[in-house]
Amino acid sequence: MDSSLHESPATVSMPRGSRWFAGMWVTASAMLREASEGLAGLLGVRIVRLSGVDRSEIEAHLLQLDPVSRANRFMGAVDATCVRRYVAGIDFTRDLVLGARIGLSLVGVVHAPVHGAPGGPVAELGISVRARHRHDGIGTQLLAATVREAREQGVTAVQLRYLASNAPMAAWARSAGARISRAGAECTAVVSTAPAAPAVPRLAT
After folding, report:
1. Residues 138, 42 contacting (CB under 8 angstroms)
2. Rounded to whole angstroms, how far apart are CA atoms 109 and 74?
3. Which domains does the chain have, with CATH numbers?
4. Of 124, 142, 122, 123, whose CA–CA distance to 134 is shortest?
5. Beta-carbon contacts of residue 182 (< 8 Å; ≥ 6 apart)
6. Fewest 10 Å CB contacts: which of 62, 90, 144, 193?
7. Interstrand relation of 105-112 and 186-192 (parallel, antiparallel or unpaired)
8. CA-CA distance, 99 to 47, in Å (whole number)?
9. Termini Cα distance of the chain
10. What pLDDT is attached to residue 131?
11. Distance between CA atoms of 123 and 121, rounded to whole angstroms?
């Protein structure tokens, strides 16, 4: 670690004006985060279950992704034929398939195929959000809704594979308390769907 980037506060003196500016910057950053989280609600976003009647919309959504976004979604470059084959194979009776709608428009999709595992069923999550809505909090809403849906369906964990360069997915995995492992350029995050245990109060002594 480069120690020049982590000097002890005791050895660094910050002018009073700089301290004021730093404090204002932290406050502004927190306000921006809160605004982003609330923006999805202001846009009238609805998180809904998708079914076979939505298959053509899901296909159109995925085909509209730019090459980088599509590579992030599918963990590598795929052409239109592969996307169509993928959508045709979605099993709506088994998998978790959720969408984010603004009005009638489908702006985000989660497909999480469910498969058996020694500890119970696991859903392997894939998510995509239309480019113009990437910073509106829609992805966070979709991911949280998927974990809730998985819990209700008896799925024990949600697994997410993403490229190490995919900063938004890495940030969400950390915030969700996922167990994260990395192999080369790929990361795997596993989120348990078990509800958090309530805090046990300490007994008075």
Report:
1. no
2. 13
3. 38-192 (3.40.630.30)
4. 142
5. 164, 188
6. 144
7. unpaired
8. 6
9. 44
10. 86
11. 7
Specify the amino acid at residue 146: T
Nearest C-alpha neighbor of 126 from the set 113, 111, 147: 111
Residue 50 identity: L
Query: Which whole-number Å values give the CA distances from 197 to 125, 156, 177, 193, 203, in the listed order?
Result: 24, 15, 14, 12, 18
Q: Which helix (H) or strand (E) holds 40?
A: helix 16-42
Predicted confidence band at 43 (pLDDT cuts at 50, 70, 90)?
A: low
DSSP for 135-155 reads: TTTHHHHHHHHHHHHHHHTT-
Query: pLDDT tens across 76-131, in order?
Result: 889 999 999 999 999 999 999 999 999 999 999 999 999 988 888 999 999 999 98
Sequence-distant (6+) residues with CB within 8 A of 140 are: 37, 40, 172
pTM above 0.90, yes or no: no
Say which DSSP state 4 is in: G
Count of residues in the chain: 205
The helix or strand, by DSSP H or E, that contains position 49, with its residue range, turns out to be strand 45-49
Q: What is the pLDDT of residue 177?
A: 84
Among 45, 77, 89, 84, CA closest to 62? 84
What does the mean pLDDT of the chain come to? 79
Residue 95, both tokens: 């998998």
Reply yes or no on whether the pLDDT at 75 is more than 70. yes
